[in-house]
Design goal:
CATH architecture: 3-Layer(aba) Sandwich
Shape: globular
Strand order of the largest sheet: 3-2-1-4-5-7-6
CATH superfamily: Vaccinia Virus protein VP39
Number of strands: 7
CATH topology: Rossmann fold
Strand content: 15-25%
Largest sheet: 7 strands, mixed
Oligomer: single chain
Amino acid sequence: MKEVQDHWFREAKAQGYRSRAAFKLLEIDQRRRVLRPGQRVLDVGAAPGSWLQVASKAVGGRGEVVGFDLKSIDPAGLPPNVRSLVADLREVTLAELGGRAFDVVLSDMAPDTTGDPSGDQARSARLCHGLLDHLATWLRRGGTLVYKVFEGGDYPELLRRTGGMFERSKGYKPTASRAESVEMFVIAEGFRGEPRPTEPTPEEPIAKSRPRGWGAGGGEHAGRA
């Protein structure tokens, strides 16, 4: 196990988080302040629950966090403002999630990897497109979305689609991500409610488009895994 993995694993254990992924959301929140007291937050692909822990603390007792996953999430030790359920992204309804739109939607979900980078990336992108399909129902106007995707050939198109649905959207790679990892986190703010056309212009052909992340340093990377 590499030293960076040892570091984040030890930190998660020391601070009581269920996985090292907690530090990715903590860094994103520190940079962009996506989580605020009193918000209603949805965590998609929430197992084992480290993002639930982070979001719960950020929204406080007046807020609410709902998480679902195909895998069962152990409720032991989760705060009272957290509710989790076993559900499928393709089938879960807003009624099952509490019946009201959310202020923030988070997603750390990923497909089971096969060792085929191209295939894994394509499956990751399909999951993210499925998530975007639900936003008109799940996310309030002006709301925020944070989702993970494997960077690859489908990433620019996914980022363009997201950009058509939000006022601002950028890719970001937290320092807690492994250097060799292809995962990127898209942070989108100001949900429009209705997508606008996202076809590339002649000046911005798909083949030449290269999405950029926020900033140029301190763990922020422009299209690099």
